[in-house]
Amino acid sequence: MEKYYRKINELKEACGVFGIYGHREEVAQLTYYGLYALQHRGEESAGIAVADGKTVVVEKGMGLVSDVFSNKDKLLNLKGHIAIGHVRYSTTGASELVNAQPLLFRYRGGLLAVTHNGNLTNSKELRYKLERDGSIFQTTSDSEIIAHLVALSGKKELNNSLRLAVERIKGAYSFVLMNEKRLLGLRDPFGIRPLSLGKFNGCYILASETCAFDALGAEYVRDVLPGELVIINEDGFISEQLIPARGEKLCIFEFIYFARPDSQLMGKNVHMVRKELGKILAREHKLKADLVTGVPDSSMSTAPGVAEELGLPYETAFVKNRYIGRTFIQPDQSERSAGVRLKLNPINSLVEGKKVIMVDDSIVRGTTSLRIVDKLKKAGATEVYVLISSPRITHPCFYGIDTASKDLIGAKMDVPEITKTIGADYLGYLSQEGMLTATGLGRDCFCTACFDGCYPEEINFRKQKPLFGDRY
């Protein structure tokens, strides 16, 4: 039984997927650019698989896209007209090469390459049943389960095999899959994780975010719908409602934190929604201060909204070391402290003698907020007011964000206690009503379970794998 332990200071992304059909000889290079645009969604591993109509070849490794494919010969060796790619942050399964995606399988129907964004909530139960019935797993990732279910379906057509497979799985998933001849995209019936369809020079593209289309100069066509299967082949694409949709429940943190500000989600620009989050946050907390600043990077769209609404100057008071990833996680306390020191550095002359409003997207454990507040005060800020552009996180997520109740400061403390813990002079959260209003979309369009415990589907808490401790 494998053991590993993770210390979390921040929310972590839920992986990025990409797929393209039709650009012979260039698909690997185009997928590389697409993954580069999606790098913020996962920094642990990256991989690309290419099909030429007869076979599938995979190249993958640990680290950033630029590290894995630093040797350009790897891309040149990936020849074909279909490709899928993946950048990974592990939520189920250790951060090891064996779990890096795309995962490639051979079964009686041929070859199947799989990439997955999300988390299956019944993976422990399914894996137990599959292993009991003779399946042999090659990874500790829940993404492998879909391949075993496809292989056991007994159906000749892949879409029919997938239909039987998804009838058995629960949770959040945006799958981009590929066999020797087709590219497929599949989204869960709630649409918890995003997936969009684009078009580039006559070929079709699938991606977690539209910023990947922009990187190629591609055209955004539409979002893949909840429960929809998109099949792309030489004749174009066809759509099939593989499983009945159960509403639209996009993870609200895609707007708050995960997605790049230049991406479009549900027809809304992420930057503009974040700016509106800031404006509403300022209306709910009418503070008097000397300046407003944001914590890079996701709050750099929200903080100007706060400043504009309060009529205060907005300043970039932190310089970020761009050579350190979006999340800096180390195994012990001293290394985590060093990580914060290396990642962000305040500009003393901007904050010295000032009352500073610091805007951030969320507080998970509180340790990062504590260190950033301390940095501002050591830089000379007389008072630090912390505004958070989301409600207090009080419940664990089982859909692809690595959080557990025992690590959530919002589940253990009230606002005054958190304020004291992080050393702030004031702490204000955005209300849930304000957050949903900022999107300009219906309040029923989002999963907000981490704030209110209202999960899209019934969760058997006893059967969830512990996020800190034993895994398969």
Automatic annotation (TrEMBL):
Tree of life domain: Bacteria
Keyword field contains Iron: yes
One GO BP annotation of this record: purine nucleobase biosynthetic process
GO MF annotation list: 4 iron, 4 sulfur cluster binding; amidophosphoribosyltransferase activity; magnesium ion binding
Amino-acid positions noted as binding [4Fe-4S] cluster in the UniProt annotation, renumbered to this chain: 251, 397, 447, 450
Cofactor note: Binds 1 Mg(2+) ion per subunit. Binds 1 [4Fe-4S] cluster per subunit.
Enzyme class: transferase
Keywords linked to the UniProt accession: 4Fe-4S, Glutamine amidotransferase, Glycosyltransferase, Iron, Iron-sulfur, Magnesium, Metal-binding, Purine biosynthesis, Transferase
Catalytic activity line of the entry: 5-phospho-beta-D-ribosylamine + L-glutamate + diphosphate = 5-phospho-alpha-D-ribose 1-diphosphate + L-glutamine + H2O
Entry annotation: catalytic residues: 15 (nucleophile)
InterPro entries in UniProt: GATase_2_dom, Ntn_hydrolases_N, PRTase-like, PRTase_dom, PurF, PurF_N
Pathway: Purine metabolism; IMP biosynthesis via de novo pathway; N(1)-(5-phospho-D-ribosyl)glycinamide from 5-phospho-alpha-D-ribose 1-diphosphate: step 1/2
EC numbers on record: 2.4.2.14
Pfam families in the cross-refs: GATase_6, Pribosyltran
Keyword Glycosyltransferase: yes
Cofactor (UniProt): Mg(2+); [4Fe-4S] cluster
Signal peptide per UniProt: none
Record-listed Mg(2+) binding positions: 298, 360-361
Domain Glutamine amidotransferase type-2: 15-235
HAMAP family: PurF
Similarity remark: In the C-terminal section; belongs to the purine/pyrimidine phosphoribosyltransferase family.
Described purpose of this protein according to its UniProt entry: Catalyzes the formation of phosphoribosylamine from phosphoribosylpyrophosphate (PRPP) and glutamine.
Protein known as: Amidophosphoribosyltransferase
Organism: Psychracetigena formicireducens
